[in-house]
Amino acid sequence: MNALAATSRNFRHAARLLGLDSKVEMSLLIPFREIKVECTIPKDDGTLVSYVGFRVQHDNARGPMKGGIRYHPEVDLSLKLMLMLLLICSWKVDPDEVNALAQLMTWKSAVADIPYGGAKGGIGCNPGDLSKSELERLTRVFTQKIHDLIGVHTDVPAPDMGTNAQTMAWILDEYSKFHGHSPAVVTGKPIDLGGSLGREAATGRGVVFAAEALLAEHGKAIKGLTFAIQGFGNVGSWAAKLIHERGGKVIAVSDITGAVKNPHGIDIPELLRHKESTGSLKDFQGADSMDANELLVHKCDVLIPCALGGVLNRGNAADVKAKFIIEAANHPTDPEADEILAKKGVVVLPDIYANSGGVTVSYFEWVQNIQGFMWDEQQVNKTLQNYMTRAFHNIKNMCQTHDCNLRMGAFTLGPQSSLHCYKNEFTGSCSDRTGNSSHQRLPKLDATLITAIDFET
Ligand SMILES: NC(=O)c1ccc[n+]([C@@H]2O[C@H](COP(=O)([O-])OP(=O)(O)OC[C@H]3O[C@@H](n4cnc5c(N)ncnc54)[C@H](O)[C@@H]3O)[C@@H](O)[C@H]2O)c1
């Protein structure tokens, strides 16, 4: 099941639990605005090439919209290809996928209780095929086309697949030509341009705080428990390192190059050094190699998928031996696997909460830029811990109120808090749950529209 299907399914289930009117439910699913722009640049050899950039802004009830900008070949929308695709009546890009990811950002921000809505976007290109100067030109042209539709209090992009701190620096520079110096228009910037300390580790660190909150609920702690971690990139390696520092035993790790196991616990700093010097997990002396697929069903206390979506499915869910699963990757568990795991008594901490540390520290970056005051790393990490712990208890409250699992506890939080804002808008008092009404709100729906439109259910 893809991201769209899984997000819609979870949202609809949550809507039932909340008793939402079907028309209100539909209004929360429809994006606020979809933007598509043509971006033509000269390549280094002087020839022109055209790409299509896009941005889906899902919802702004709780505050400015927030989400990544990705450069990815799967969303290759060069005009030539677009014409070919239109001719054969098929569409290589899955706009629904981007809509789903934008929607997921709305709910994730609400779960983290940060005053943002959700957005997602990107350019259909293969960044690996472009030189640095071509990427810069493309990013600047894209920014010129959308600068009136993003902004500090409107929509705040961040890095995603195929983009990085450098991309954000180009967007910031180009945007500032039109609007004056505006560091808060993007997050995930280089530190020198107003990026936040602690951002690089934030998602992995948030995963560990989330795990601590869950384990504490079950009378346990990281120390002494065994962990299997799929993925050793940004999120997986930070999670592994912090678990190791807390006395947890990481007994299995995998990435695209292979998998290793050691029942006594892998020396994670050593594995990081090995990966850094060889680029691979293979031939690591401190552990035995293992079948990468076996990692997901390896005997351990806590399984943390930090790589791909859909890795836990009906094919392997029955064989999972972990007691807890912390979803660091986006949608790693298929709904079918969810049901099987629930029957086995496995506790699943959902992605929408477990990997929200990144967007939470992005919010801290935005706050620091607006304050014009930089926090030290300790303050960033401590505040992140407070947010992750509070969010866990908010989810637990929803679980109790609606007699549901943690995934539904998280998914009911999002629509409920967006609705609080809309209700305030309908009655003329526009403020979010924190009482902050300072950000610019854009009209999305009014009460008359909700009752007038006969949505299909
Ligand atoms: N980085 C963030 O801030 C962030 C925030 C929220 C969610 N996420 C999600 O977390 C996941 C990981 O993100 P990341 O930033 O660490 O990405 P990354 O590219 O840094 O790392 C991905 C890791 O997955 C491994 N991998 C790929 N295919 C694999 C396979 N078949 N088996 C085992 N490992 C495999 C790669 O080798 C790599 O180690 C993704 O699902 C991403 O959407 C990341």
Automatic annotation (TrEMBL):
Keywords: NAD, Nucleotide-binding, Oxidoreductase
Gene source species: Salix dunnii
The family this protein is said to belong to: Belongs to the Glu/Leu/Phe/Val dehydrogenases family.
Binding site for substrate: K66, K108, S362
Reaction equations catalysed: L-glutamate + NAD(+) + H2O = 2-oxoglutarate + NH4(+) + NADH + H(+); L-glutamate + NADP(+) + H2O = 2-oxoglutarate + NH4(+) + NADPH + H(+)
Gene Ontology biological-process entries: L-glutamate catabolic process
InterPro entries: Aminoacid_DH-like_N_sf (IPR046346), Glu/Leu/Phe/Val/Trp_DH (IPR006095), Glu/Leu/Phe/Val/Trp_DH_C (IPR006096), Glu/Leu/Phe/Val/Trp_DH_dimer (IPR006097), Glu/Leu/Phe/Val_DH_AS (IPR033524), Glu_DH (IPR014362), NAD(P)-bd_dom_sf (IPR036291), NAD_bind_Glu_DH (IPR033922)
UniProt: NAD(+) binding residues: T203, N234
Pfam families recorded: ELFV_dehydrog (PF00208), ELFV_dehydrog_N (PF02812)
UniProt KW Nucleotide-binding keyword: yes
Residues annotated as catalytic: K120
Protein name, UniProt field: Glutamate dehydrogenase
Top-level taxon of the source organism: Eukaryota
Cellular component terms per the entry's GO annotation: mitochondrion
